Amino acid sequence: MGQDLVPDNAILSAIFPHAKPASVTILSKTFDTCRFRAQFDTQPCEHWPMDLVVYMEIFDEVPVLEVVTALGRAANHQFPGLVPETYACKKALTSDGRDVEYTVARYLTGTVTLETVWPSLPTEQKESLVDAVVMAIKQVHTLKNTDPIVKELLADTPFIKSDGGTCIGGPRNGYSENVREFLTHLVEKNQLRRSPTSDIVETAEGVLIHSSLPELGQVLLTHDDIDHLGENIVLSHNDIEPRNISVQAIVAEDGSVSYELVGIVDCHKAGFFPFAFETADKDLSLGNENLFLDWYMFFKEKTRSMIPPGGASEKLIRAVRIITKSKCMQQKTSVMAEFRRRWLEKEGLDLSDDVLTGWERTESSSVTRQEPWVFSLEENIRLYDQVAQDCQ
């Protein structure tokens, strides 16, 4: 079995040829990716701070991090300082011969992730932080893929087509010429080898997306719907969760502590999408990448007005539900999938018929507490351990 990707001597020497880090702290790692903090006693490179964060991943023919870096610059063009500055984006070779792509960015010294403090915050402070995040998102969303500045901000990336137009999608979701192609790619990405999951069919009225499971139904996006979605393609982070939000403690004269937004990190899922796609993805993240129900509910409530009216966005969300659920229901159950199923069940949640609402408490739910956050970190760990044991 292969080893997780870590910053070995070959990597550190390639990234920092002029200074050796005084300390290296691994923040996260998998076989393919690693994020670590590097702190120095002397400046590692001219104009670089002495507290840096490096993200690296196995290079797979097509550059990804160069595009992610460009998207971060585009976000900062709309909201200066929102995304930590990136100083380098290059390639290197590990001591075991693996090609990696890496970025070096400013570490937000003195901050913590919102994920670490969220459970302890009073409701009014949570709501204030969500308001600050939503304000930043709204500012970033003012950049549409049709704006002339996009060609400059994303020059030499796959976003810029040969005819001068701009693709939709992103480095993690793929690049599409238009909304039709984007939907086609989404259906293709969610297929299984041994059985069909969903299909997309051109009709006289538009495109019909239907599940191979009759109970999941179908949705028709008319030509007008597709045109409407295509007119509202905006720069989206696509992973606004507490783990990607950096906050800083502010101590008042009376000793009370509050937190303020400092930045948003990890733009790896970013790209140009209809915002409805991001809000649909938020439904998929709950119980998986996000375990804070009140964060989810605040976010959905405060971004609802950002969904363009007219019905096309609601149809897109339904399409995403059909496509992803068609795959999920036919896959062999994994530990994480079963954990999510039990977590949603214990929270007493079901998907609302109002797709803009997303997950909501059901009337028959046995959860009687009024606050929407139920499970502590320890309870989530116990649930995961139980699921892992049951799935053996």
UniProtKB/TrEMBL annotation:
It comes from the Eukaryota. SUPFAM superfamilies: Protein kinase-like (PK-like). InterPro entries: AGP_Transferase, Kinase-like_dom_sf. This is Aminoglycoside phosphotransferase domain-containing protein. It comes from Ascochyta lentis.
